[in-house]
Design goal:
With 163 residues, this protein is mostly helical. The chain has a domain at 37-146. It has two helices and no strands. It has helices spanning 7-132, 157-162. The radius of gyration is 64 Å and the shape is rod-shaped.
């Protein structure tokens, strides 16, 4: 085998080694660069996703806090409405009992005035009886009236009818 090494063959071997390796290196470098960019983009996307999830968690937490405050506010409003209703019922009861007390006071005043009128009438009748006392007589047929005491006077109705 006769193997001659010529300048052309050396140049072509060197260019082949350098060119082949250079092209392979170039493509490997581009592939590595794209892979690194993809990993960086993926890491950036994951960081952005984590950031969005953290924001979402914050929003959910704020929503839960707001819901708790809304529930507490609605409970407080219901309690206030219930107490206002109770106060209104108590006021109605108070007005009802006040009206009944006023009616009873009016009845009591009327009874007192009626009692005063009865006492006045009784006193007047007592004075009239005292004034008529000299003209009373136990004998109903008697034309001469004699003064008698009322406690001793008995009127014999049956005796008068039998005469």
């Amino acid at each position: 085998m006769n193997f001659e090494i010529t300048l052309e063959s050396i140049v072509s071997i060197v260019s082949l080694v350098l060119g082949g390796t250079g092209i392979g290196t170039f493509f490997t470098w581009r592939w590595a660069k794209k892979e690194a960019a993809a990993k960086a983009a993926e890491a950036e996307a994951q960081a952005e996703k984590a950031k969005v999830e953290a924001e979402k968690a914050k929003v959910e937490m704020a929503q839960q806090v707001q819901d708790i405050y809304q529930q507490a506010l609605s409970d407080k409003n219901a309690e206030v409405e219930d107490k206002n209703r109770i106060i209104q019922e108590l006021r109605q009861d108070r007005d009802h009992y006040k009206q009944k007390a006023d009616e009873l006071n009016d009845k009591l005043d009327k009874l007192k005035s009626d009692m005063d009128a009865i006492k006045f009438t009784q006193a007047r009748q007592s004075r009239q009886i005292d004034a008529m006392r000299p003209f009373l007589c136990a004998d109903m047929m008697c034309r001469k009236r004699k003064s008698v005491t009322m406690e001793q006077t008995t009127i014999p109705i049956a005796a008068n009818e039998s005469k």
